[in-house]
Design brief:
The complex is a heterodimer of chains A (437) and B (311).
Chain A: E1 4-13, E2 18-27, E3 30-35, E4 44-47, E5 52-55, E6 57-62, H1 75-84, E7 87-92, H2 103-116, E8 120-123, H3 139-144, E9 151-152, H4 162-172, E10 178-181, H5 186-189, E11 194-195, H6 198-203, E12 207-208, H7 210-227, E13 230-233, H8 239-251, E14 255-259, H9 261-265, H10 287-298, E15 304-305, H11 314-317, H12 334-343, H13 350-357, H14 359-365, E16 384-394, E17 413-423, E18 426-430
Parallel strand pairs in A: 1-4, 1-5, 6-7, 7-8, 9-10, 10-13, 11-12, 13-14, 14-15
Antiparallel strand pairs in A: 1-2, 2-3, 5-16, 16-17, 17-18
Chain B: H1 15-32, E1 46-51, H2 56-68, E2 72-77, H3 89-99, E3 103-108, H4 113-120, E4 124-130, H5 136-150, E5 157-161, H6 168-179, E6 183-187, E7 202-204, H7 207-210, E8 216-219, H8 224-228, H9 235-242, H10 246-249, E9 257-259, H11 272-275, H12 282-303
Parallel strand pairs in B: 1-2, 1-3, 3-4, 5-6, 5-8, 6-7, 8-9
Helix pairs in contact in B: 1-5, 1-12, 2-12, 3-4, 5-6, 5-12
Classes of the chains: A alpha/beta (437), B alpha/beta (311).
Bound molecules: zinc ion (2 copies).
């Protein structure tokens, strides 16, 4: 017997090319029926008229800080933040303390996440032992473990040694895993704090040149072309990176890429005073870079939006610019910010935005292990998000489920919010003041 | 500065502000020539020198300036303060706030630190150098020295030579000189220039070519660690190309002023003979420092409330 009827929402599921007002019935955690007017009797009815129902979002790039920095974020607070942001699954980056560089720790993290029963967690494993960039980590054992690690990255820093990166890419082709590149040549970014250029000059801060990213994007594209390894470029930030990505895709290189909301919505001109909330890596680039990213996001060259959710404690961020860590929190502001600033301004259509948050990231990951990414079809798991696309509200970082308050969009008046998030057919998050089902 | 309680960078100042400070500095310079070099203008005020970077010269200059104005001075230097114990800038600011200090002179290795301090403190903030960003009182004392030597600065030409990239002295100095209507050139190897053009500034790499055009030559200190960063191959090569030596000085205009923010590397960016030549205004710069800092402290702390005027 179906338990829940979601009534009258506009369904948008780019993966199944679905767009229309329909009812969705949910039973035993799965989608039982999709149709014009479904039987209400015996079902709890969720009135979704005027709202948009989409598959739950998939975060391909978040930092959840556990183990090691539970003061900044825990799996619990991070996965709750995910549900608040409409995400039903999250990939967590391995730059924890200690790093996720072996099967035991990856399994422990995955088991802890399962126990919490919030959003699904896909741990990303390290490419190199200790994230030191010297020897390969046991990637196959992580992949074969219960954690079923399917993507590897030394995110937080780039793999400096081209030889090591080549071996990693060759090696993982044996089990079809994905390599995620944090493209940053450390010799070029050395000591940099903001984008190198007019702003770094005026602020008197050391610059991170666009080249620090581009040199490594070029290298990794060549390595992927050579090895045939699936490569994913994290947080692209420059126009030239986008151009290289475009060319590589045209040549058939197996590459995907993500852009973050902060790089899509801000440039280095937006850095306000010396407020470290704007300190991110890669840095906010020029307005021209931002425009190139937006264009590539709209036309399909960028495959996914990722928040690069990077929570930090207030004490860590409230410091001199050079001493503060890089990063912003993102999962709870992604949808409202992009909806308000790109969809409502006509730069991006809503279906494309949903694609960038659902089937786009699912395709990036090639998600094995689960039926994630099937979308709103009968039999698929009922991991869904109901979007309120009309209401106006104010983003308040103090209300985030994340422990991180380092949100550059705090205080923005936005349209569009997560009305509720369903995980396995159950309402796992509901926005405050939205009544009961 | 008329509206602001702080002096964070030269941008805060209009040309009129600058002229007012220089004029006030002239009367304080007069005070400094008297047998009793002290006025009661800031009696009862407390000035803290918060130095996160060692700079005995600048700290002493501020200290003497504040004492000549009869302010109470506290020195808080990185070696004796709690930085090493991990106390944050915010905690230090809150401590100073609780102590009710009137002005904080801050020197810090990180750009923007004075701006942070402003969020947490009611006191007037004076930037005594933040990272490679700004050093407004140095810029003002350099202008004071230039006016003293050259008279009207409008239309005059100054070249900043050397490590422009890492120099807060050059950054603030260039803004100040431009505000006074001067033409500004920068001369350096490309690796010691900022990544973006400085507004309204002509850039060159050939010192010999620009010397004949200049009324003032501002030689910047070269730090050996820049060589280690690979920004130039050797001190010998740098010296060969960019040192101000008697031969080069021979091609300068009569009356040219040679400046340096100190401390000098004699024999590197400047030859000893040049440093000691009459056209060198380097010790005059140091002397101007106290008068100019008195003027700034007085303007920020005493001026507005009509504190006792200088003679
Ligand atoms: Zn990264
Ligand atoms: Zn990251």
């Amino acid at each position: 017997m179906p338990e829940l009827l979601i009534e009258g929402a506009r369904l948008i599921d780019p993966f199944n090319r679905l767009d229309g007002v329909m009812d969705v019935a949910v039973s035993r955690g799965r989608i039982a029926a999709v149709g014009k007017t479904l039987e209400k009797e015996g079902r709890e009815v969720l009135d979704a008229r005027g709202k948009v129902l989409a598959p739950g979002f998939l975060e391909v790039h978040a930092h959840l800080r556990e183990p090691g920095r539970e003061d900044a974020e825990t799996l619990q607070s991070g996965l709750e933040a995910a549900l608040h942001g409409g995400y039903t699954a999250v990939c967590c980056m391995p730059n924890t303390e200690p790093p996720l560089d072996n099967a035991a720790i990856a399994e422990a993290v995955a088991a802890r996440a399962r126990e919490l029963g919030l959003a699904d967690l896909f741990p990303v494993g390290c490419i190199s032992r200790g994230r030191e960039g010297r020897e390969l980590a046991e990637m196959a054992l992580m992949h074969l473990s219960a954690a079923r690690v399917c993507a590897f990255s030394d995110d937080g820093s780039g793999v400096q040694d081209a030889g090591l990166m080549r071996r990693a890419m060759e090696y993982v082709t044996a089990f079809g895993a994905l390599i995620i590149s944090h493209a940053e040549d450390a010799a070029l970014s050395l000591g940099g704090q903001v984008n190198e250029g007019a702003v770094s000059t005026a602020m008197g801060l050391r610059g991170i040149p666009a080249l620090a990213e581009e040199v490594m994007v070029a290298r990794d594209l060549l390595l992927a072309e050579e090895t045939g390894c699936r490569l994913h470029l994290a947080h692209l930030s420059t126009a030239r990176s986008v151009r290289m990505l475009r060319d590589a895709k045209k040549r058939g290189v197996p590459v995907t890429a993500e852009a973050t909301p902060h790089h899509l919505l801000m440039s280095d001109r937006d850095i306000d005073g010396y407020d470290t909330v704007f300190k991110v890596n890669p840095p906010l680039r020029t307005p021209a870079d931002m425009q190139a990213l937006r264009k590539a996001t709209g036309d399909g060259i960028i495959d996914a939006v990722a928040s690069d959710h990077a929570p930090h404690t207030l004490e860590d961020k409230e410091r001199e610019f050079d001493y503060a860590p890089f990063g912003v929190v993102g999962m709870e502001s992604v949808f409202p910010m992009l909806y308000s600033e790109l969809v409502l301004t006509g730069a991006l259509d809503l279906t494309r935005l949903i694609e960038l948050l659902t089937s786009g990231p699912a395709r990036v990951l090639g998600v094995p292990a689960t039926d994630y990414g099937m979308g709103i079809i009968v039999g698929a798991r009922a991991d869904l998000v109901l979007l309120d696309v009309d209401g106006t509200w104010t983003l308040d970082a103090r209300e985030f489920a994340s422990k991180g308050r380092n949100c550059p969009f705090h205080g923005r008046v936005v349209k569009g919010r997560i009305h509720c998030t369903l995980k396995n057919g159950k309402i796992a998050y509901r926005a405050p003041n939205t009544g009961s089902a | 500065m008329a509206e602001s309680r702080h002096l964070l960078d030269v941008d805060d100042l209009t040309r009129e502000d600058i002229e007012r400070v220089l004029e006030s500095a002239r009367s304080f310079a007069e005070v400094l020539r008297r047998p009793i070099k002290k006025v009661p203008s800031l009696r009862g005020k407390t000035v803290v020198n918060l130095f996160y970077e060692p700079s005995t010269r600048t700290r002493m200059s501020f200290e003497v300036a504040a004492k000549r104005l009869s302010a109470d001075v506290m020195n808080f230097t990185a070696s004796t303060s709690s930085v090493e114990k991990g106390e944050s800038l915010k905690d230090t600011a809150l401590t100073l706030e609780a102590m009710g200090v009137d002005a904080v002179v801050i020197r810090h290795p990180v750009a923007g630190a004075p701006w942070l301090l402003r969020q947490w403190l009611e006191a007037a903030i004076l930037n005594a150098g933040d990272g490679m960003h700004a050093h407004p009182t140095q810029a003002l004392l350099d202008l004071f020295t230039l006016c003293d030597r050259l008279g009207d600065l409008e239309g005059r030409t100054i070249a900043y030579v050397g490590d422009i990239l890492h120099s807060r002295v050059a950054r603030s100095g260039i803004k100040a000189c431009r505000a006074m209507g001067m033409e500004v050139l920068v001369v350096a190897p490309p690796t010691l220039l900022p990544p973006a053009e400085l507004e309204g500034v002509e850039t060159g790499h050939d010192l010999d070519a620009v010397i004949p055009r200049c009324d003032a030559l501002y030689m910047l200190r070269i730090q050996k660690e820049r060589q280690e960063e690979g920004r130039f191959p050797s001190l010998e090569e740098y010296t060969h190309l960019y040192q101000l030596n008697p031969r080069r000085l021979g091609k300068a205009r009569p009356g040219v002023v040679v400046m340096h923010p100190g401390p000098m590397n004699r024999g590197v960016e400047i030859a000893s003979e040049v440093a000691d030549a009459p056209m060198a205004a380097i010790t005059a710069q140091v002397a101007s420092g106290v008068a100019v800092r008195m003027a700034v402290l007085f303007t920020l702390l005493g001026g507005a409330e009509g504190g006792e005027r200088v003679a």
